[in-house]
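Sequence dictates fold. Below is an illustrative record:

_____
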Amino acid sequence: MSELRWHPLLEQWVVVASHRQDRPQLPTKGCPFCIGSGRVPDNYDVLIYPNDFPAFSADSEPFHPEPGLFKTTGSQGACDVVLYSPDHNLRPSQLPVEQWRKVVDLWTARSRELTTLPYVEYVMVFENSGEAVGVTMPHPHGQIYAFPFTPPLYDKELTAASGYMDANQSCIYCELLRRELADGIRVVAQNDSFAAFVPFAARFPGEIAIYARRHFQRLTDMQSNEPQDLASLISVVRKKYDSLYGILLPLMMILHQGPAKGDAPYSHFHIDLLPLQRSATKLKFLAAVESGAGAFLADTRAEERARQLREAEPRTPLVP
C-alpha cells in the first residue's frame, strides 16, 4: 500500500509506493494486456485496465492535506492503464486516426467518471513511450492517474495562468497560441480545432504543445468535431516524431486540463509531448542542473526543430 510523505523543503507530496519495485520489466512473453492472457477480455478494441501496481487506489487511507516535517497521509485515488489496441507490436505512431479517436473517447469517459469521486482533485492522462523513458510494458498503452491533490507542476502552471488572467482579463494560453500562429515559425501542424507547435522556451528536444483553438478546460468539454480533430492531430504528430530519425522516439505525452472540482476559467486544455531524443544517436538526460536545480538546458533550438518536424515524412521501416 502506498503512502504520501510531505517534503517540507519543496512543499510537495512524495508518493512512496515500494510495491511497484515488483512490476514486470519489459517481459518478452506473457503480456497481461494481450488477448489470451486471462487478464483482459477475449475481444477488445480499447480498454481501461486497472493498474496492477497502483500508486493511488480507492481502498487506500484518505488523504489529509495538512503538512508537517514528518507528515504522512493516505494515497486514496485511482490508477488506470489505457490499452490503445490489442496488437502487442503496434507502435502508437502506427495507430490509425480512428483508433486514436477511440482512445480520446476512452480518456474522456474515464475522466468524467473519476471527477465524480469525492476524493479526486486532479485527473492526469499521460503516456510514457520507449525504454529510455522507463516503460516497463511494451504493449501500446497510456495511463490515467486520479490524484487526491493537484500535482505540483500542474499547480504551478494553473497559478501562473490564474495570475495572468487576473492581470490581463484574458487567457495566457489563448494569447500564446495567437502569437505562435501569427509567427508560424514554430508551428508544426494544425487543423480546425487544434494546433501543434514547438514552444518558444521548449525544455525538451523537439517538445511539442498541442493547444485547443477554442477556450475550454477539460476533455469532457469538447464539442462537435473536436474529439476527431484531436485524434487526427495526435496521429500526425506521433508519425512525425517517429519519422524524424526513423526510430521509435522515446517521449512522454501529458494532457493538461482543469482541476476535477470547481471552475477554473484560466485553465485551457492542451497536451505536452516531451521527447528525450536530441539527435539520432543521443538522448537528453535530466542530470544535475535539470533534476537538482530545476533549470533546463535546451540542447536544441525551437525554431530549427520545428522546421525539421514540419518536414518529417513517414519512413519505413522504423527501427525498433
Observations:
- The longest strand covers residues 122-129.
- The radius of gyration is 19 Å.
- The chain is about 25% helix and 20% strand.
